[in-house]
Amino acid sequence: MSKILVFGLFLILNFGALALGSLLMGSSPIENEWYVQLNKAPWTPPGWVFGAAWTTIMLLFTIYLTLQKKEKITDKRFVFLFALQFLTNVLWNPIFFYFHWTLLGMIIMLLLIISLVLMLYYFKLRSWKSLFLLPYLIWLSVAFSLNAYSWWMN
Fold it and tell me: Which among 105, 106, 107, 110 has a CA at the least distance from the CA of 93?
Protein backbone atom coordinates (compact mmCIF):
# COMPACT_ATOMS: atom_id res chain seq x y z
CA MET A 1 0.00 0.00 0.00
CA SER A 2 1.48 3.36 -0.97
CA LYS A 3 2.23 6.07 1.59
CA ILE A 4 -0.35 8.34 -0.05
CA LEU A 5 -3.04 5.70 0.34
CA VAL A 6 -2.03 5.05 3.97
CA PHE A 7 -2.06 8.81 4.65
CA GLY A 8 -5.54 9.15 3.10
CA LEU A 9 -6.89 6.20 5.07
CA PHE A 10 -5.57 7.48 8.41
CA LEU A 11 -6.70 11.01 7.59
CA ILE A 12 -10.25 9.76 7.03
CA LEU A 13 -10.17 7.63 10.18
CA ASN A 14 -8.73 10.39 12.39
CA PHE A 15 -11.02 13.16 11.20
CA GLY A 16 -13.89 10.66 11.13
CA ALA A 17 -13.31 10.05 14.85
CA LEU A 18 -13.54 13.79 15.50
CA ALA A 19 -16.68 14.11 13.42
CA LEU A 20 -18.34 11.09 15.05
CA GLY A 21 -17.47 12.37 18.53
CA SER A 22 -18.95 15.76 17.64
CA LEU A 23 -22.15 14.16 16.35
CA LEU A 24 -22.54 12.06 19.50
CA MET A 25 -22.10 14.97 21.90
CA GLY A 26 -25.40 16.53 20.90
CA SER A 27 -25.24 20.31 20.65
CA SER A 28 -22.00 22.21 20.25
CA PRO A 29 -20.34 23.40 23.49
CA ILE A 30 -21.35 27.01 22.85
CA GLU A 31 -25.00 25.91 22.58
CA ASN A 32 -24.82 23.37 25.40
CA GLU A 33 -26.52 24.98 28.41
CA TRP A 34 -24.80 22.62 30.86
CA TYR A 35 -21.36 23.46 29.50
CA VAL A 36 -22.03 27.20 29.30
CA GLN A 37 -23.01 27.24 33.00
CA LEU A 38 -20.19 24.90 34.03
CA ASN A 39 -17.59 26.27 36.43
CA LYS A 40 -14.63 26.08 34.01
CA ALA A 41 -10.92 26.26 34.75
CA PRO A 42 -9.39 29.75 34.54
CA TRP A 43 -6.96 28.41 31.90
CA THR A 44 -9.75 27.22 29.59
CA PRO A 45 -8.81 28.47 26.11
CA PRO A 46 -11.29 30.29 23.86
CA GLY A 47 -13.53 28.03 21.78
CA TRP A 48 -11.71 28.54 18.47
CA VAL A 49 -8.51 27.09 19.98
CA PHE A 50 -10.14 23.67 20.33
CA GLY A 51 -10.91 23.41 16.61
CA ALA A 52 -7.47 24.65 15.58
CA ALA A 53 -5.75 22.34 18.06
CA TRP A 54 -7.65 19.22 17.02
CA THR A 55 -7.14 19.92 13.32
CA THR A 56 -3.39 20.31 13.84
CA ILE A 57 -3.20 17.28 16.14
CA MET A 58 -5.04 14.98 13.75
CA LEU A 59 -2.87 16.08 10.82
CA LEU A 60 0.29 15.42 12.82
CA PHE A 61 -1.08 12.11 14.12
CA THR A 62 -1.87 11.09 10.55
CA ILE A 63 1.70 11.89 9.52
CA TYR A 64 3.01 9.86 12.48
CA LEU A 65 0.86 6.88 11.53
CA THR A 66 1.84 7.14 7.87
CA LEU A 67 5.55 7.14 8.73
CA GLN A 68 5.26 3.83 10.55
CA LYS A 69 6.47 0.86 8.55
CA LYS A 70 3.90 -1.53 7.09
CA GLU A 71 4.90 -4.25 9.57
CA LYS A 72 4.13 -1.91 12.47
CA ILE A 73 0.72 -0.73 11.32
CA THR A 74 -0.37 -4.35 10.88
CA ASP A 75 1.09 -5.43 14.25
CA LYS A 76 -1.72 -6.56 16.61
CA ARG A 77 -0.52 -4.25 19.39
CA PHE A 78 -0.54 -1.28 17.02
CA VAL A 79 -4.04 -2.10 15.74
CA PHE A 80 -5.30 -2.52 19.32
CA LEU A 81 -3.74 0.76 20.50
CA PHE A 82 -5.02 2.66 17.47
CA ALA A 83 -8.51 1.21 18.01
CA LEU A 84 -8.38 2.12 21.72
CA GLN A 85 -7.26 5.64 20.81
CA PHE A 86 -10.05 5.91 18.22
CA LEU A 87 -12.74 4.61 20.57
CA THR A 88 -11.75 6.75 23.55
CA ASN A 89 -11.41 9.82 21.34
CA VAL A 90 -14.96 9.30 20.04
CA LEU A 91 -16.50 8.37 23.39
CA TRP A 92 -15.18 11.28 25.44
CA ASN A 93 -17.42 13.88 23.74
CA PRO A 94 -20.81 12.28 24.50
CA ILE A 95 -19.66 11.14 27.96
CA PHE A 96 -18.66 14.68 28.92
CA PHE A 97 -20.98 16.96 26.91
CA TYR A 98 -24.13 14.84 26.56
CA PHE A 99 -24.22 12.70 29.71
CA HIS A 100 -22.19 15.15 31.88
CA TRP A 101 -20.22 12.29 33.43
CA THR A 102 -17.07 14.24 34.21
CA LEU A 103 -15.37 11.51 36.27
CA LEU A 104 -15.94 8.88 33.58
CA GLY A 105 -14.68 11.46 31.06
CA MET A 106 -11.42 11.68 33.03
CA ILE A 107 -11.08 7.89 33.02
CA ILE A 108 -11.70 7.73 29.27
CA MET A 109 -9.18 10.51 28.66
CA LEU A 110 -6.65 8.67 30.81
CA LEU A 111 -7.14 5.56 28.64
CA LEU A 112 -6.60 7.73 25.57
CA ILE A 113 -3.36 9.11 27.01
CA ILE A 114 -2.20 5.60 27.95
CA SER A 115 -2.93 4.30 24.45
CA LEU A 116 -0.74 7.02 22.94
CA VAL A 117 2.07 6.53 25.45
CA LEU A 118 2.05 2.80 24.73
CA MET A 119 2.06 3.54 21.02
CA LEU A 120 5.18 5.64 21.58
CA TYR A 121 6.73 2.93 23.72
CA TYR A 122 6.19 0.12 21.24
CA PHE A 123 6.60 2.09 18.02
CA LYS A 124 9.47 4.58 17.80
CA LEU A 125 9.75 6.17 21.22
CA ARG A 126 13.27 7.43 20.55
CA SER A 127 12.74 8.38 16.93
CA TRP A 128 12.16 11.85 15.49
CA LYS A 129 8.79 10.45 14.38
CA SER A 130 7.63 10.54 17.99
CA LEU A 131 7.67 14.35 17.81
CA PHE A 132 4.49 14.14 15.73
CA LEU A 133 2.68 12.70 18.79
CA LEU A 134 3.97 15.32 21.22
CA PRO A 135 1.26 17.96 20.48
CA TYR A 136 -1.43 15.29 20.93
CA LEU A 137 -0.07 14.31 24.35
CA ILE A 138 0.38 17.94 25.42
CA TRP A 139 -3.16 18.83 24.36
CA LEU A 140 -4.58 15.78 26.14
CA SER A 141 -2.74 16.82 29.30
CA VAL A 142 -4.38 20.24 29.09
CA ALA A 143 -7.76 18.68 28.30
CA PHE A 144 -7.38 16.27 31.21
CA SER A 145 -6.69 19.19 33.56
CA LEU A 146 -9.78 21.01 32.24
CA ASN A 147 -11.89 17.88 32.70
CA ALA A 148 -10.48 17.32 36.21
CA TYR A 149 -11.24 20.93 37.16
CA SER A 150 -14.83 20.52 35.89
CA TRP A 151 -15.24 17.33 37.92
CA TRP A 152 -13.75 18.82 41.08
CA MET A 153 -15.43 22.23 40.97
CA ASN A 154 -18.93 21.28 39.86
Answer: 105
85, 109 contact by CB (below 8 A): no
Domain 3-153, CATH: 1.20.1260.100
Task: Provide the residue ranges of all domains of the chain, joining segments of one domain with +.
Answer: 3-153
**Residues 102 and 147: beta-carbon distance below 8 Å:** yes
Quote the CA–CA distance of 82 and 78 in Å, as a whole number: 6
The model's pLDDT over 25-67, given as tens digits with 9 standing for 90+, comes to 877 776 788 999 999 999 999 989 999 999 999 999 999 999 8
Report pTM. 0.90
| Rounded Cα–Cα distance for residues 31 and 63 (Å) | 33
Compute CA distances 21 → 70, 83, 89, whole Å. 28, 14, 7
Q: Of the candidates 126, 143, 138, which has an alpha carbon nearest to the alpha carbon of residue 89?
A: 143
For 61, other C-beta atoms within 10 Å of its C-beta total 24
